[in-house]
Fold this protein.
Amino acid sequence: MEKGKKKKSGWRMGGAFCLIFILCLGGCQAQKNLSGEETKESAKESAEGTGTEEREARLASDGSMIFGEPVMSLEPDQLFDIDGAVATKKEYMVFFLNTRNQYKDEFGESILEKNTGATNFEDELRENVLNNLAQMKAMVRIAQYESVSLEEKELLGTQAAAHAYYESLSGEAKNFLSVTEEEIETLYEEYALANKLYYQMTSDADTEVSDDEARVAVIQQILIKTVKMTDGTETEMTEDEKKEAFEQAKEAWRKARDGADFTVLAESFNDSDTPTDVTFSRNTMPKEVEDAVFDMENDSISDVIKTEKGYYIIKCIDSYDKELTDENKKTIIEKRQEEAFWNLYRKFMDEAPSVFNDAAWEAVKQEQVNGIETKDFFELYDEFVMGT
């Protein structure tokens, strides 16, 4: 990759130790759909080669996609099938080992035994890699429906990455993975296609964001609450307690209007869990506070503002911070881009037939992988594919 060349943003499985913890195969857990009588061959034929025009022809009257029925069963070395996209144990182990060893090298061997609740980090990682592999396979199918494909230079990049990765494997790693260079190349192609789909879908999102929509204000606040915690549950105060809270709010407001140091007042009146200094954008503070602040002049003090959970007194430091507003515009655009993709992804996953091989997954979970040192898959992808 050329020095200084900016990488395209995209979907990532393991690069930079960033896992997307999205459960695939139809929702919160793997969808084990074993209905249908098609053979593997006919199911695959019905799913392949569907470009945009064919996809439109496959829409039902309610606008939903029409998929072929899933296959009845999977081979022992196959983990799942999503609309004809099959994942194997080999593919899973390539991604798992590379991701596992990245974490191990970055944070030390002990990270693998770290408790994450009911299990340890390594077991949680196994599940997350499975989910990411399912996500990638689904994205490959979506790319086919959307007529997204790799260009020649991108294919050359995946070939170069596959060759470099395969050559980097020790004899022990090659024996353990039992994978060919051609299979590695296919993995790189699918990984690249998932990233390209994500990039293209997010690039089409609306990037026009007004200053008003992205506006960010900087304030100091005093909050006299009218709710309280009772046995871990938030409850409303009594009417007498609310009247007392209002009297406290009026006292704080009078002192602030008389020129008392607002920071000192906030320390006196705020609960310990209420911050004095606040930076906020639209829809992150109570609407009553937002409306008041965006109509205030800098360094002014608000009236007592009544909200559902208490009384606010605000000192406006900056009702329009330009630098923070510009940063928030980027955040809003990124969120829109992500939503554009994930809306399509969720629709696909809600409707796509899928089959999950429990027996194969149980076998994979028992695989002992200590000493298998392979970790360069994602780095080589960045070097040979992202730079194309």
Summary: The mean pLDDT is 83. The chain has two domains: 15-206+332-384, 216-319. The two ends are 7 Å apart (CA to CA). The first strand starts at residue 78 and ends at 82.
